[in-house]
Specification:
It is built from 15 helices and two strands. It is mainly alpha-helical. The protein has one domain. The protein has a two-stranded antiparallel ribbon with strand order 1-2.
């Protein structure tokens, strides 16, 4: 919005306004805007949510016993302020002519609404199960399929329906019409993976921040013809503008961690985790780096696999591989403190992020 308003003054009497043409500058501004918005609104949001959530977020009765004491009564749906700050900051500093930017915001709002409905059912029934899995997936498919299909119709997508692999210059698999199925799978898988990871105070936001930084860099590279040609990666026109959105996500996540650090004053709930995960997955599809996203977001992948393995193994053998799934609860059961689990997972996420970026240069 601000970018669009001052655009007409670039070549008139205010040459210093040329700085707003640079995505890097606008991304920095977007980061600080979303960060400060969260810090300024956090306490008021907590007070408001506590007033309207007498019991707070329902806690799993089969989880670690300590959670029933330390987390009971903590308000949820804090994802609302994350989404609001991201939306405001992106509209303020982003180029509103970018179709990719609008589609990402569509995913953010669509999946955020689904997460909010899930949180609402949990609060209304005082049951941690919330919206049924089938209904939740159906709603996610509708939103993801719509946005992915519109993205494929956009000229910037360039009709590319292939999966590109890191390290190898020319290795790719053409999916054709099945690319839409793949794209929807990535978006929904990412959304639910982040949701599963969000089980301890600050656990999910560390990998979210690292993934956002990595894909802000990737988005900038694939949106620049010179860098794309040099690195032998797919060129996606106008993709660099997504840096602004991802910068707002980093800023909002850091701001929210101010209140979400152990012991958390507020949870982002499915409202935040489902929306953030879906947005990151959609950015991976748009940038044509879905495989690298699986590496950079390796924590999310491991958390999801731990649940799948646990469920499948129990159904087949009536035995459990892990003491509890997702895997962060397994380590809690083994005696690790919550802060130890969170910090070690953050360290792993940083290492995976650096490794993911390194694969681009190796190619």
């Amino acid at each position: 919005m601000f970018y669009s308003l001052i655009y007409k003054f670039y070549n008139v009497d205010f040459p210093f306004l040329h700085i707003f043409k640079y995505i890097t500058f606008r991304s920095i501004c977007a980061f600080f805007t979303s960060f400060l918005l969260i810090l300024l609104s956090g306490e008021k949001a907590i007070t408001f949510l506590k007033k309207h959530q007498s019991e707070g977020q329902p806690i799993r009765d089969d989880g670690p016993a300590s959670h029933m004491i330390s987390k009971k009564g903590t308000p949820t749906m804090g994802g609302v302020i994350i989404i609001a700050s991201m939306l405001f900051s992106t509209l303020l500093w982003g180029d509103l002519c970018s179709t990719n930017l609008w589609l990402c915001l569509g995913i953010l709002l669509g999946f955020g609404t689904i997460g909010a409905i899930d949180d609402y059912f949990k609060l209304r029934t005082n049951d941690y199960h919330g919206l049924s899995g089938k209904k939740k997936i159906c709603l996610q498919v509708i939103v993801a399929a719509t946005c992915c299909y519109l993205a494929m119709l956009d000229a910037n997508f360039d009709g590319s329906t292939a999966i590109f692999f890191p390290i190898f210059k020319h290795l790719q698999i053409e999916l054709g019409a099945f690319f839409l199925v793949w794209a929807v799978f990535v978006v929904i898988g990412s959304s639910n993976a982040v949701n599963l990871t969000d089980g301890l105070d600050g656990l999910a936001l560390g990998p979210v921040i690292m993934s956002s930084i990595c894909f802000a860099i990737i988005s900038y590279l694939v949106g620049n013809t010179m860098f794309a040609d040099y690195l032998h990666i797919p060129y996606v026109p106008c993709m660099s503008e997504i840096c602004v959105l991802l910068s707002t996500l980093v800023g909002a996540s850091l701001g929210f961690m101010w209140f979400n650090a152990p012991p958390a004053k507020i949870f982002m709930g499915d409202t935040g985790s489902v929306a953030i995960g879906g947005t990151l997955g959609f950015v991976a599809v748009l940038s044509k780096h879905e495989i690298i996203f699986a590496l950079v977001g390796g924590i999310f992948v491991v958390e999801t696999l731990s649940v799948i393995i646990q469920v499948c193994c129990y159904k087949l053998t009536r035995r459990r591989i892990f003491l509890m799934a997702p895997i962060h609860h397994h380590f809690e059961k083994k005696g690790w403190s919550e802060s130890v689990v969170v910090f070690r997972f953050w360290i792993i996420s940083i290492v995976l992020g650096i490794l993911g970026l390194a694969t681009i240069k190796i190619r």
